[in-house]
Amino acid sequence: MRLGFHVSTRGGYAQAARKVKQLGANAFQYFPKNPRSLALKTPDWKDAQRCAAFCTDHGIVSIAHSPYLTNVASEDAELRARTVQSLLNDLEIAEACGSLGVVVHFGVYKGADPLEGYRNAVLTLSAITSQWQGNAKLLIENQAGDSTFMGTTMEELAQIRSLSIDPHKIGFCLDTCHLFASGGWNGSPEAEWLHKAKELGVIEHLTAVHLNDSVYPSGEKRDRHARIGEGYIGEAGLSWLLNHPLMAEVPFVLETPSDADGTHRLQLERIRRLRGVGQVD
């Protein structure tokens, strides 16, 4: 099982990977640059290469996450242009670190024509994929519905990928809290969304899962992550997802608040118990 958490890169990319191993995880997510800016970064490439080598040697996988300002669907053409350059920069860093890809939100559109938002997303993603030649993928993440009508359904995820240039350079990252908050899942096992995701090819291209519980009930469109086992999703649904055969090779990454000791150690143990591996003290 590939399981881990979001980690700071304040000490460098390689140090982040070492911290993950020290805490008994074998997957992680990180920001490749300042998460509050689209400014391009020239990283320490040797540090990135050390990260990649360490992860290869210790069987660790990683994903990067784009900055908060990233918006592929924006009605602001200048912001979209900056987003293209920023994501190409993110992909370059992720590639150097040996990461699977870069998570990017489906996008927020606040203009008058909803269809323009989808067109913007396709054009922006295509502008990136047509230039990118590496192995790291853009990983489109489903949204909670808290700030936009877009990106909450499996149909939207599948369609946005299929309409983009070079769709083989695009995968998906599924966020369980977003799925729950949007009303796409009520936390029950054998959920319809998974059958739909399989039917539409979303599961085939699923590269990572953000494993987050929810502070609020299903359908409230409020994106607030809770620690695993402390939210509304419930153990039955989480256990079903963790043990589903279609998820066997997919890394699960926590974006939840840390435990009382400042780590995610207890949540990792809880997840292993839900999957039938290990015990909680």
From TrEMBL:
Which cofactors must be present for this protein to function? Zn(2+)
Recorded protein name is Deoxyribonuclease IV
- What InterPro entries does UniProt report for this protein, alphabetically? AP_endonuc_2, AP_endonuc_F2_Zn_BS, Xyl_isomerase-like_sf, Xyl_isomerase-like_TIM-brl
Q: What is this enzyme's EC? A: 3.1.21.2
Task: Give the main EC class.
Answer: hydrolase
Instruction: Pinpoint the Xylose isomerase-like TIM barrel domain residues.
Output: 18-265
Provide the family line: Belongs to the AP endonuclease 2 family.
Q: Which SUPFAM superfamilies match?
A: Xylose isomerase-like (SSF51658)
**NCBIfam families (alphabetical):** nfo (TIGR00587)
Q: What does the UniProt keyword field contain?
A: DNA damage, DNA repair, Hydrolase, Metal-binding, Nuclease, Zinc
List GO molecular-function terms, semicolon-separated: deoxyribonuclease IV (phage-T4-induced) activity; DNA binding; DNA-(apurinic or apyrimidinic site) endonuclease activity; phosphoric diester hydrolase activity; zinc ion binding
A biological process term (GO) from this entry: base-excision repair
Where does the signal sequence lie?
none
